[in-house]
Amino acid sequence: MFRPPRGTRDYLPWEMWRRNWVIDRIREVFEAYGYEPLGTPAFESWEMLKLKSGEDIIREIYYFKDKSNRELGLRFEWTASLCRVVASHRELPKPFKRYAIGPVWRYERPSEKRLREFWQADADIVGVADPIADAEVISVAVDALKRLGLEGFKVRINDRRILEAFIELLELPRSLSLDIFRAIDKLNKIGVDGVDRELSKLGVSEEKRGKLMKLIDVKGEPEERLGEVEEILKHSEVGLQGLEALRGVVEYSGRFGFKPHLLLDLSLARGLDYYTGPVFEIYLGDVSISIAAGGRYDELIQLYGGDPTPATGISLGVERIVATLQELGVLDDLRIGTEVFVASASDSVRDKAIEIAQRLRRAGISTDLDLMGRSLSKQLEYANRRGFRKVVIVGSRELERGGVTVRDMETGEQRFIPLESLLDHLSPH
Amino acid sequence: MFRPPRGTRDYLPWEMWRRNWVIDRIREVFEAYGYEPLGTPAFESWEMLKLKSGEDIIREIYYFKDKSNRELGLRFEWTASLCRVVASHRELPKPFKRYAIGPVWRYERPSEKRLREFWQADADIVGVADPIADAEVISVAVDALKRLGLEGFKVRINDRRILEAFIELLELPRSLSLDIFRAIDKLNKIGVDGVDRELSKLGVSEEKRGKLMKLIDVKGEPEERLGEVEEILKHSEVGLQGLEALRGVVEYSGRFGFKPHLLLDLSLARGLDYYTGPVFEIYLGDVSISIAAGGRYDELIQLYGGDPTPATGISLGVERIVATLQELGVLDDLRIGTEVFVASASDSVRDKAIEIAQRLRRAGISTDLDLMGRSLSKQLEYANRRGFRKVVIVGSRELERGGVTVRDMETGEQRFIPLESLLDHLSPH
């Protein structure tokens, strides 16, 4: 028996209906915010993929050659493809707000929570330097999560330039800054001692390690804590720029309506190399697992050959969101699957049953019918097992009276419904 | 500047909105018919992929090894993955009706009409041997095409067993039958002379070539022509089985409501190796380019290790359908893109503009707003260029009177709308 390749999985209908419901809601909210769809291929040239990626990620890309020996790789996220398109289509009006929802692939050690094929739903704004754009991408993610029924999640924010200012303040070598950010980024996974060990390995002295850990240990309501950060950073130009951007995001968060979710967290680093400004992560419960994350990347489009163009974006992790919703039971009561089953009481009415099913289908009511020539009792048994919500029983006696019997499978109630009012009766209200 | 890999392309928003509209309509019709979504990975094990594929297709699969040297390949269609799932999940209730919509990949010579990454939308019924299932999968495709605004398309049908009977009748070697089917399948591309040459290359004598070409030259209204086919096949058991199945499809086509589209065509062979019964292709205009195609494959699930299980299905070619719709201008008047733009008449009202935009978005009205701090005239210019249909102008004087100005960008008409009725005014009716 064949199985899906290691790190990938199948989604049977009961799960897929729920996944699709989640994806559809995210898309609705993205579109309500004016983000536009962009389509790019599943694989890109290897040269392009490795351009912006650190060693860690290059190792995780599914690499292959096509039959003309072109070097290709499966996309491991959406941002590189977006930057490629923006760089080569200068005619796109700015701001360009795009969304993309689909699978990405990474060759990581698979676990229940980490698959090698997983879906990301991204919303990005290209062409806006002001923190209003960072606030808007956070806002669209927050509203998508709320639309899905999630509450109580937190949006941790920081700015890369504040961390850079700390490197400067402590007179640590700038060449180490990305490695230091990556170590800090693991704080919620490996704890303070773990980060201390990693920093020690990088050659950071005990004294500086202690100071750095204290500097990044600022966490709380942004408006309460930004004052003390300013005190620390008052002599660092780059640090004050970061602080200014965070102030902007906090201010806009009130207008956009997500201020209660905001949490300043100077230990938030985000591993990726290319962030240049505000970075953010959304989590619910377990702080080591983010359900959405993003940041500003003002230098990336230039790297792909485009004009210097500011950009910021956020990415929602579809599998983690679905898993969270499932744990919370939010998806249990979802009305999924096919609505109506049309059963034939006898062979003589099967043609009529098909006609009735076709009328319902063309009116947009999801409808199935017996394809197996089963007896009525077998059909009802099947309908019950499959969870259809309504069964239309077509019988010759009822047809003579110009109607059919409709059974509500939840209440067990049966009613005679004239054919001319069947559509109305079955339409979802 | 980087480009998408050869044979793939980007879809910019104006195109992607239309693609998504097409895909959404297909999905709606699939779901209205009671087909259920199934999710399978983009790549499968090489061993599995090559199992059912002829040499032609194996050559077209994107093959690669993962970093543990597992042999994998990108899916080149949806059927193999469906069979794998059905074979390994015996618990799935039958009939199992599933749909899948997404990209597949084939390394073919790319052209404008043939990409290496293209989307297929499949609907299949597993577990039903009766031709009612073949009729239903044709019907769902027909209704999807109608829903998209297409008319005048034809559904060519044949049955593999009729072609097998011809091989038998002419005493041609059965080992050649698949090659002969593939030659016949090219009829609309290479013409009668071309097929004749191919058959000659296979060693079919001139006399038998002439007879075969005459046998397959039956084309027309099924009910008019099936009688003569019966006359030819009356001594062939397998041929009569095929005829019987076609009669079933024709009879059901009346009930399902697609009889006017049906065309019997004994030259329809379908290249794929695994078909065992009725085969069908839908085309519009150019008969060499099908926009949907499928057939019955009763032996395939067994091949993947499952119980012997009858199955049939149809696949819609998304790119070809979109191209056809575009040629016909069906997509021109589609209401795509973002509906409303909220403009600020001055800096003092920008916060209020954000609040208003957020209210509209949360009510599901797709809304954008100025993120660039532009002057009102610049904002209106941008709104016009981007094609928003309504502009909400937030000004301090109107706010004092408890409302905003709404400009209809199509008519140019401007009206004062009180804030409390803004949602009603802008909701699509």
Account of the protein in words:
2 copies of one chain form a homodimer. Chain A is of the alpha+beta class and 429 residues long. Chain A has 2 domains: 13-328, Bira Bifunctional Protein, Domain 2 (BirA Bifunctional Protein, domain 2); 340-426, Anticodon-binding domain (Rossmann fold, 3-Layer(aba) Sandwich), CATH 3.40.50. Chain A contains 17 helices and 17 strands. The first copy, chain A, has helices spanning 13-32, 46-51, 55-58, 79-88, 131-147, 160-169, 177-185, 187-201, 206-215, 222-233, 237-256, 300-303, 318-327, 350-362, 376-386, 396-400, 422-426; strands at residues 36-37, 43-45, 63-65, 71-74, 96-105, 117-126, 154-159, 219-220, 262-265, 278-283, 290-296, 311-317, 340-344, 367-369, 390-394, 403-408, 414-418. In chain A, a hairpin with a 5-residue loop joins strand 3 (63-65) and strand 4. In chain A, helix 1 (13-32) crosses helix 13. The radius of gyration of chain A is 27 Å and the shape is elongated. The two termini of chain A are 45 Å apart. The model of chain A has no long low-confidence stretch (mean pLDDT 94). Chains A and B meet through helix 1, strand 1, strand 2, strand 3 and helix 4 of A and helix 1, strand 1, strand 2, strand 3 and helix 4 of B.
